[in-house]
Write a structure and sequence with these properties.
The chain has about 400 residues and is α/β, with parallel strands linked by helices. The chain is about 40% helix and about 10% strand. The strands form three sheets. It has a seven-stranded mixed beta sheet, with helices on both faces. Strand 2, helix 4 and strand 3 form a beta-alpha-beta unit. Helix 1 packs antiparallel against helix 9 and helix 3 crosses helix 8. The chain is globular, with a radius of gyration of 21 Å. The site of pyridoxal-5'-phosphate has 15 residues, from helix 3 and helix 4. Pyridoxal-5'-phosphate binds next to helix 3 and helix 4.
Length: about 400
Amino acid sequence: MKVPLLDLDAQYRSLKDEVTVAINEVLESQNFIMGDSVRSFEQEVAEYCKAEHAFGCASGSDALLLALMAIDISPGDYVITSPFTFFATAGAISRLGAIPVFIDIEPGSFNLDPVKLEEFLKGESKLFHRIKPERNRIKAIIPVHLYGQLSNMKAIMKIAEEYDLIVIEDAAQSIGAKTEGIQAGNFGDFGCFSFFPSKNLGAYGDAGLITVKDPELAKKTNFLRLHGAHPKYYHKYVGINSRLDAIQAAVLSVKLKHLDNWSDNRRDKAMEYNQFFNEAGLVSDGPGSQSKVILPAELAGAPENGGRHIYHQYTIRVKNQDALQSYLSDQGIGTSVYYPVPLHLQECFSELGYTERDCPESSKAANEVLSLPIYPELDSDQIKFVVEKVAEFYQ
Ligand SMILES: *Cc1c(COP(=O)(O)O)cnc(C)c1O
């Protein structure tokens, strides 16, 4: 049996006819830039995410960049984020000459720890004393909703309000995820989404979208993705060229209708994994437990309380990460480590002077996480096979 980490082919086969019609419509219209398919997709996403304003752009990375540009992040500003994320989150900050501030994660959710965030903002943390930021240069927080689960947004929003900070949610991995019934992207001032092909809602190439709460900032964001022009050829701002491709928008409109169904399916697969792992005796709770595997926790709340983990990844913590990964690979099982090097330890940020001790939970997570195959089309036999092989490894 082979269990690839991700199988996009199965989904494509099931949508091929619908998608082909949608792509052909764009071809027939010869309207490749902005146009109807982009506008309707933006409306559909706004409705789906319950957002006031939604603007397509070229990628999730650009969505983050556009949000930071909209609030005039400039050289010397500080923007707080998690070090345990894809590079783009911090890359967007650095590209504007601003300084990323890495605050460690909670071990359970893998997301930005509000307790450590507050400690920093109160000026009580070691990190604060080392970097000595000017208070009024600390501008924004980018919480990342990793693996499909929201950060502790209630706590983060409270802190953001107290310190008057803008909140930009990196929801690239969590479209449709919820806490207390509130959708990813709807807590903060901006929500940034990615439609990279492997995301829960994936395009057939690069694509992204940004949601904006404030109407003035929404207008500005809209102009910024079109070189800051308003009207055309009259440039109010220096923006960038970052549009959502019309063909991608057409593909995404077809797929959006299936998204909830896919996310529910992923959740079912995750529950099956949990059950098989428990039955295999690989997990034991309780203090001092010697369990080989720690299962993902749903800290954003259970479904009956309005929580929704959309399992972009099913990520466990394991002992002997490297060896287990190569053992599984030999058995035909694809896995991945998201992410092997936390951002505070990346070479390109070495000048910021972080050491492992600044964000110990992120460093620990990087050495322990393993994402297993999860997608709506995965079947029970495959899940069982993966768990059996993990158990075999530890015997
Ligand atoms: C995928 C991703 C991005 C970047 O999205 P792209 O569309 O690939 O540019 C940003 N942040 C996180 C957390 C992501 O997973």
